[in-house]
Amino acid sequence: MDTAAIDGQRDPQKPQTHELLLFVYNPSMKVALIFGGRSGEHDVSIVSARSVATALRNGGHEILPMAIDRQGLWANDIESRRVLEGSGDRPDQALTFTGEYRIDPRLLDNSCDVVFPSLHGPFGEDGAIQGLFEILGLPYVGSGVAASALCMDKVRTKRIFENDRLPTAPWVTVTSHAWRADPEALRRRALDLGLPLFVKPSRMGSSVGITKVIDTESLDAAVETALRYDTTVLIEQGIEAREIEVAVLGTTEPRASVPGEIVPGDVFYSFEDKYLDARCQLIAPAPLDTDTTERVQRLAVEVFRLLGCEGMARVDLFLEKSTGKIWVNEVNTIPGFTSISMFPRLWSLSGLDSPGLLDELLRLAIERHNNPR
User: Fold this and answer.
1) Rounded distance between C-alpha atoms, residue 223 and residue 234, angstroms
2) 352 and 281 belong to one structural domain
3) Inside any domain, residue 341
4) Is it the case that residue 265 has pLDDT exceeding 60?
5) Mean pLDDT, residues 325-333
């Protein structure tokens, strides 16, 4: 650890047990950038990390790249740098690599000042690795264990939205056990919502495993596809709506960016549409009137606070075309940082360029570490 990042020295006259190590924000920090991982979003994570690395370097920070392979092993420094310095800006251009450690030893020897987990999906965005950082006493970017786990689970966030009377699309849930035991009963419950339906793994992102169902014959295949990624599946009623995204930044006083709008080039904003086909339109700022803009921003901050998010999140909303009603879709606590990602783009339009955004995220990480709630 760079001694410039430590506020003061240990006093030998004071008890050393339960001592909180304080950090101060340093304009030039050693950032452990973690990417890859075991989830289905492995390749997207690598592409995000490359963009994050560029912004960190432009901000004057030193990067300690830490790549995790698909089996959960951590690569050595040379291999991690090889992957990070690859030139691909699409998930299908990410490099294959193999790890060798159960955990990167640099996390254990005070080599870094702060951690930036560029990990999407399970084992990275779901509170698992955040728990490791908490155990090791490391400052890290993004939400804590509980909020990360909650936002990753679409079914549980749905229940919280309903409990707090926030508008969210009607839904049912399907577990693998129940589907095998009585699929007909679950089909009836799902189809009672009305077509079209969206069938999603409960704990996955980047539209992986999602199917839009437009006829009854397609439902079974959609459920089976989702069950490949999770044992719990969310089935939602489709809403004829515009897809609005708002980037939220902060902790005790979170603030919202200008909204953006996604216009899918596919039947919905699928993985292929997001990262491979380049047919979708990413409109930023979204063409909304002042009143609607303020409503989506207020709702995004309300959702951020309700779920206990910290640091950053992208809140996805639906703006119903016929009524103007705003529906909450989901929250991403580690939003993408690829060349097409809305989170950095919306903050750039809100007056915070990528290096400045990364600086703010590092500052928030240090602040949260020094003042645990």
Assistant:
1) 9
2) yes
3) yes
4) no
5) 96
Report the C-alpha dihedral over residues 339, 330, 281, 291, rounded to 10 degrees. -110
C-alpha–C-alpha distance, residues 56 and 50, integer Å: 10
Report the predicted TM-score, pTM, of the whole model to 2 decimal places: 0.87
Please give the positions annotated as active site.
Answer: 41, 206, 275, 314, 316, 330, 332, 336
Number of domains in the chain: 3
Edge-first strand order for the sheet with 211-213 is: 171-175, 232-237, 197-201, 211-213
- 230 — phi, psi (to 5°)? -160, 155
Residues with Cβ within 8 Å of residue 69, at least 6 apart in sequence: 36, 75, 97, 98, 99
Question: Do the domain assignments include residue 147?
Answer: no
Question: Are residues 347 and 281 both part of a single domain?
Answer: yes
Q: Which residues have C-beta within 8 Å of that of residue 211, sequence separation ≥ 6?
A: 198, 199, 218, 221, 222, 225, 226
Residue 371 located in a structural domain: no
> d(Cα 329, Cα 299) in Å, to the nearest integer?
11
Q: Which residue has the higher pLDDT, 4 or 204?
A: 204
Instruction: Detail the DSSP E strand segments found in 176-214.
Output: 197-201, 211-213
Q: Which residues pair with 6 in a beta bridge?
A: 23
Distance from C-alpha of 200 to C-alpha of 242, rounded to nearest angstrom: 19
Higher pLDDT, residue 208 or 272: 208
Distances (CA, A) of 240 to 24, 193, 227, 292: 48, 14, 26, 17
Q: How far apart are CA 134 and CA 208, in angstroms?
A: 29
pLDDT, position 75: 98
> Do 160 and 271 fall within a single domain?
yes
Which tens digits make up the pLDDT trace of 296-305? 999 999 999 9
- Looking at the structure, tell me whether residues 185 and 267 fall in a common domain: no
For 115-149, the pLDDT digits (tens) are: 999 999 889 999 999 999 999 999 999 999 999 99
CATH code of 202's domain:
3.30.1490.20
Same domain, 112 and 25: yes
32 shares a domain with 122: yes
268, two tokens: 């919905």
* DSSP one-letter code for 119: -
Q: Which of 213, 237, 261 is the last residue of a domain?
A: 237
Q: Is the pLDDT of residue 276 over 50?
A: no
The pLDDT tens digits for 67-115 are 999 999 999 999 999 999 987 777 777 888 999 999 999 999 989 999 9
Domain with residue 56: its CATH number is 3.40.50.20
